[in-house]
C-alpha cells in the first residue's frame, strides 16, 4: 500500500521528462551509444537527471520541480547543453521530435537493464517499435482526489497537447499522413488508454489492487495511459506529447499544462462525466491525424467545433491564471503558433519538400535541437547547408 | 580437323570473367564454411582459399591469372578506401583533442618501436625505416569489412575506422617521403629525389580534390536521387582508380582523399549517404581471395623471426599510443585496449607498397619484402579474428545472441 499513498506536492508545480534521439553524424540514422553517452555525462556532471530508455538509441532528460516557466526553461537549456557537449565528444547528434523519420525498428537494440529486458520478453517487437520519443509533463497536486479530478478533466484537453507537440509525421522511411504518428505506436500496448472513470483516490486504489490481484499489473508503471496519477511524486502525468523539436517549445507546453491545471483545480468549472471518454478517442484521433485542421467534440455541449478554435477559446479562459503562474508570455507564443498554424510536424514536412531526403530531415531535427547550444560545434558546421 | 573447328580447343584460354566467377564462388563458399565451422570471420576464409589457390598451394592463380584478377582487386580496394575516407570525420578530431592525441601518439610510437626493434635486430636503417612506415598503416579493408560483417556500430568501431584512415594516410606519406632516401641510396639525381615524392603526394591529393568537387557538383545538379548518386559514386571510383594508375599516382591517397573530401567539403549535404558497400560486397570477396593468392607461405619461413619482432613492436607502439590517451577521450574503461586490438591488422596495402617500391628499384623491393610480407601474411589471417574479438567484446556487434527474439 506504501506505493499507493499519495504524496502531496507543492501546488501547482510542474516537471518535464523528455525522451531524445541519439543520431550518428554520418547518415543521421539512430545510433546505439546511449551507454557511452550516459557514462560521459556521469563523468562531466550535469543538472537534472538523465536516464536510459528502452532502446540504446534513446535517452531521457528529467527537469527538477518548478513553479514557473522561466526557471524551467533555464534548467532545460542547461541540461540540453550538457548533453550536447557530451554528444560532441562522442561524435553523436541529439535530436528532438516524436519519431525518427527513417530508422528501422528491427535494427534497434534493447538497453541492457533488467526492466527493459523484461519488457522485450513480454512485448516482443512492440518493445523495439517503442523507439518513439515523448514529452511527459508532471503537474503537482495536493492529494489523490485532486489527482483523480484533474486526470478526468485534463482528458478533455488531450487533443490540444497532441497538436501543439506533434512532431512525428514520418516513420520507418515514409510519410504517415499523421501529424503525430507516435501515439499509434503507444496504442498497440494492452495497458494503454485511459484511467477508468473512478471518482476518488480510494476508489482508484481499490481498482489498482484488483488489477494487481489479477496479476495484470505489478506497479503504476505498467499502465501506459495517456494521463495517469503518479502517487509517489504527488503528480498527474500527461504522456501524449511528442518530444518537440526545441526545449523552448517543451517549456511552453509545460507552462500551458500548469496554467490549465490551475484553472481546473481552482475553479473546478465542471463535474467529471463519463461522456468525456465517449468522445475521447475520436478527438484524440482527429488531433493526431489532422493537427490544427481537426474537429473537436465537446462532451458537455455535445457540439462539434474546429479544434484550433477550441484551443484559442481555452487560452482566453486561462488569461487570469496565466498571470498568477507567470506563464502569459509562454501562452502568447502558443497562441501565435495556433493562429499561424505553425507546428513542428508542418516544419518537418517543409524541410522534406525543400531538401528532398529523410536523412536531411533527421539532420535538421538534430540541428534544431542543438541550436543555441554553444557546445554544438559540429552542428554549427552542418548548419551552413541548412 | 577443320570440320570440328566449332569445338573449343584445349587447353581452354583463360577468361577473366570466368576467373572472377570462380574466385567469387570459392571465396563465398569457404568464407561461409569458416564462419559456420570455425566461428571465425569470413574474411579469414577468403584469404585461406586464396592461399590454397595461389602460388603457395595449387598454383591455379599463377602470375598470369593474377594479372587478370588485378582489376577486380583494384575496384574492391578502391571502394574500401573511398568508403573509409567517407567515414573520416575531421570535425571530430577538432572537437575531441584527445582523439587527435591518440592518433598522433599511436602513429609516432608504432613507427618508433618498429624502427628501433628492426635496427636493434640488425636491419639497415633505410630498410627499417621503410618497413616501419608501412607498418604504421592499419588495414582499411579488414577493419571496415569485419565491422560491416558484424553490423558493428559504436565508439570503438567509429574510432577504429577513423584511426585506420589516418594511419593509412600517415603510412603512405611516410613511405613516400622515404622515397627520397631510397633514390639517394641508388644515386638518383637530386631533382628525382625531390620531385618524385612531391609528384605522388601533391598529384594524388589534387586528383582526390578534383574528384570530390566533381561529384558534389554533379550530385547538386542531379538532386536527391539515391540510385543516381550510387551510379555516380561507383563510376567516379572506377574512373579515379584508372586515372591514378595511368598517372602513376597513389590509388590509396586518391581514394582516401576523394572519400574524405566528399564528406567534409559537402557543406550543403548534396550527396546522399549511399551505402556503396552493398555494391562492393562481391569485389571485397575477390579482393581478399586475390590477396591470399599473392602472399607466399615461403615468405613466412624466410622472414618469420624478424616478422614476429616487427609485429610485436608494432602492436606495442600502437597500444601504448592508444592507451595513454584513451581514458581522456570519453570512452568506457577497457575500450582503449579493444581499440588497440582493432588496429592490429596491418594493411594489405603493405603488399602493394612493397611492390611499388619493387618497380623502382627491384633489389630494394626484394629485401624489404622479406620483412614486410611475412608479417602481412600473418596479419591477413589473424587480423580479422582480432577485429572481430574487439568489436564483439565492446558490445558493438549487432548479434544479440543472448536474448534476441
Description of the structure:
The complex is a heterodimer of chains A (386) and B (405). Chain A is an alpha+beta fold. Chain A has a domain of 264 residues: 2-Layer Sandwich (Creatine Kinase, Chain A, domain 2). In chain A, the strands form 4 sheets. In chain A, strands 1, 2, 3, 4, 5, 10 and 11 form a 7-stranded antiparallel sheet that branches. Chain A has a two-stranded antiparallel ribbon with strand order 6-7. A two-stranded parallel ribbon of chain A has the order 8-9. The longest helix of chain A is centred in the N-terminal third of the chain and has 21 residues. In chain A, 53% of the residues are buried. The C terminus of chain A is likely disordered. Chain B has a domain of 271 residues. Chain B is mostly helical. Chain B has 16 helices and no strands. In chain B, helix 5 runs antiparallel to helix 6. Helix content of chain B is 77%, strand content 0%.
Properties at a glance:
heterodimer, A: 386 residues, alpha+beta, Creatine Kinase, Chain A, domain 2, 48% helix, 15% strand, disordered C terminus, B: 16 helices, 0% strand, globular
Amino acid at each position: 500500500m506504501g506505493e499507493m499513498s499519495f504524496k502531496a506536492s507543492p501546488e501547482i508545480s510542474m516537471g518535464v521528462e523528455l525522451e531524445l534521439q541519439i543520431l550518428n553524424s554520418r547518415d543521421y540514422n539512430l545510433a546505439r551509444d546511449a551507454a557511452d553517452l550516459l557514462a560521459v555525462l556521469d563523468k562531466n556532471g550535469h543538472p537534472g537527471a538523465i536516464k536510459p530508455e528502452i532502446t540504446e538509441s534513446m535517452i531521457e532528460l528529467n527537469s527538477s520541480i518548478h513553479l514557473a516557466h522561466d526557471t524551467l526553461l533555464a534548467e532545460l537549456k542547461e541540461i540540453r547543453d550538457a548533453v550536447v557537449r557530451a554528444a560532441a565528444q562522442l561524435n553523436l547528434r541529439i535530436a528532438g521530435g516524436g519519431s525518427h523519420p527513417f530508422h528501422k525498428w528491427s535494427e534497434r537494440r534493447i538497453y541492457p537493464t533488467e526492466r527493459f529486458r523484461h519488457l522485450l520478453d513480454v512485448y516482443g517487437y512492440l518493445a523495439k517499435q517503442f523507439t518513439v520519443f515523448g514529452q511527459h509533463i508532471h503537474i503537482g497536486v495536493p492529494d489523490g482526489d485532486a489527482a483523480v479530478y484533474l486526470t478526468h478533466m485534463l482528458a478533455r484537453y488531450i487533443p490540444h497537447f497532441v497538436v501543439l507537440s506533434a512532431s512525428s509525421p514520418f516513420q520507418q522511411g515514409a510519410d504517415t499522413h499523421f501529424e503525430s504518428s507516435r501515439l499509434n505506436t503507444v496504442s498497440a500496448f494492452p495497458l494503454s488508454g485511459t484511467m477508468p472513470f473512478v471518482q476518488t483516490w480510494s476508489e482508484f486504489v481499490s481498482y489498482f489492487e484488483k488489477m494487481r490481484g489479477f496479476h495484470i499489473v505489478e506497479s503504476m508503471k505498467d499502465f501506459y495511459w495517456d494521463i495517469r496519477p503518479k502517487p509517489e511524486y504527488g503528480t498527474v502525468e500527461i504522456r501524449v506529447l511528442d518530444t518537440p523539436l526545441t526545449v523552448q517549445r517543451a517549456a511552453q507546453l509545460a507552462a500551458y499544462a500548469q496554467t490549465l491545471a490551475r484553472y481546473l483545480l481552482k475553479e473546478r468549472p465542471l463535474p467529471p462525466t463519463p461522456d468525456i471518454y465517449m468522445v475521447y478517442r475520436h478527438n484524440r484521433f482527429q488531433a493526431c491525424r489532422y493537427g490544427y485542421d481537426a474537429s473537436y467534440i465537446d462532451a458537455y455541449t455535445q457540439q462539434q467545433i474546429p479544434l484550433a478554435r477550441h484551443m484559442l477559446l481555452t487560452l482566453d479562459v486561462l488569461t487570469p491564471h496565466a498571470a498568477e503562474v507567470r506563464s502569459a508570455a509562454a501562452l502568447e507564443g502558443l497562441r501565435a503558433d495556433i493562429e499561424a498554424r505553425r507546428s513542428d510536424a508542418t516544419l518537418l514536412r517543409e524541410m522534406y519538400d525543400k531538401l528532398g531526403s529523410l536523412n536531411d530531415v533527421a539532420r535538421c531535427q538534430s540541428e534544431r535541437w542543438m541550436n543555441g547550444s554553444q557546445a554544438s560545434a559540429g552542428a554549427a558546421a552542418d548548419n551552413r547547408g541548412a | 580437323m577443320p570440320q570440328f573447328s566449332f569445338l573449343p580447343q584445349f587447353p581452354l584460354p583463360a577468361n577473366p570473367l570466368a576467373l572472377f566467377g570462380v574466385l567469387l564462388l570459392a571465396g563465398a563458399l569457404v568464407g561461409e564454411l569458416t564462419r559456420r565451422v570455425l566461428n571465425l570471420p569470413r574474411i579469414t576464409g577468403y584469404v585461406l582459399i586464396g592461399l590454397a589457390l595461389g602460388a603457395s598451394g595449387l598454383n591455379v592463380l599463377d602470375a598470369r591469372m593474377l594479372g587478370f584478377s588485378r582489376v577486380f582487386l583494384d575496384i574492391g580496394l578502391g571502394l574500401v578506401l573511398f568508403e573509409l575516407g567517407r567515414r573520416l570525420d575531421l570535425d571530430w578530431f577538432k572537437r575531441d583533442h584527445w582523439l587527435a592525441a591518440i592518433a598522433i601518439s599511436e602513429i609516432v610510437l608504432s613507427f618508433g618501436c618498429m624502427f628501433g626493434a628492426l635496427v636493434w635486430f640488425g636491419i639497415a636503417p633505410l630498410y627499417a625505416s621503410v618497413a616501419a612506415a608501412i607498418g604504421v598503416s592499419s588495414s582499411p579493408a579488414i577493419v571496415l569489412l569485419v565491422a560491416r560483417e558484424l553490423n558493428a556500430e559504436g565508439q570503438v568501431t567509429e574510432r577504429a575506422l577513423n584511426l585506420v584512415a589516418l594511419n593509412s594516410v600517415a603510412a603512405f606519406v611516410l613511405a613516400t617521403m622515404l622515397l627520397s632516401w631510397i633514390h639517394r641510396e641508388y644515386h638518383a639525381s637530386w631533382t628525382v629525389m625531390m620531385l618524385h615524392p612531391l609528384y605522388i603526394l601533391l598529384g594524388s591529393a589534387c586528383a582526390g580534390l578534383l574528384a570530390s568537387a566533381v561529384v558534389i557538383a554533379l550530385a547538386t545538379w542531379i538532386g536527391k536521387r539515391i540510385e543516381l548518386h550510387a551510379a555516380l559514386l561507383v563510376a567516379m571510383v572506377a574512373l579515379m582508380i584508372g586515372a591514378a594508375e595511368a598517372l602513376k599516382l597513389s590509388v590509396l591517397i586518391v581514394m582516401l582523399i576523394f572519400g574524405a573530401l566528399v564528406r567534409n567539403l559537402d557543406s550543403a549535404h548534396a550527396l546522399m549517404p549511399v551505402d556503396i558497400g552493398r555494391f562492393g560486397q562481391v569485389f571485397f570477396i575477390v579482393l581478399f581471395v586475390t590477396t591470399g593468392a599473392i602472399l607466399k607461405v615461403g615468405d613466412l619461413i624466410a622472414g618469420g623471426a624478424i616478422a614476429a619482432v616487427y609485429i610485436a613492436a608494432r602492436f606495442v607502439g600502437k597500444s601504448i599510443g592508444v592507451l595513454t590517451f584513451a581514458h581522456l577521450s570519453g570512452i568506457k574503461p577497457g575500450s582503449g585496449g579493444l581499440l588497440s586490438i582493432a588496429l592490429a591488422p596491418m594493411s594489405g596495402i603493405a603488399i602493394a607498397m612493397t611492390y611499388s617500391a619493387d618497380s623502382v628499384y627491384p633489389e630494394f623491393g626484394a629485401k624489404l619484402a622479406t620483412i614486410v610480407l611475412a608479417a602481412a601474411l600473418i596479419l591477413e589471417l589473424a587480423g580479422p579474428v582480432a577485429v572481430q574479438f574487439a568489436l564483439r567484446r565492446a558490445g558493438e556487434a549487432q548479434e544479440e545472441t543472448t536474448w534476441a527474439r
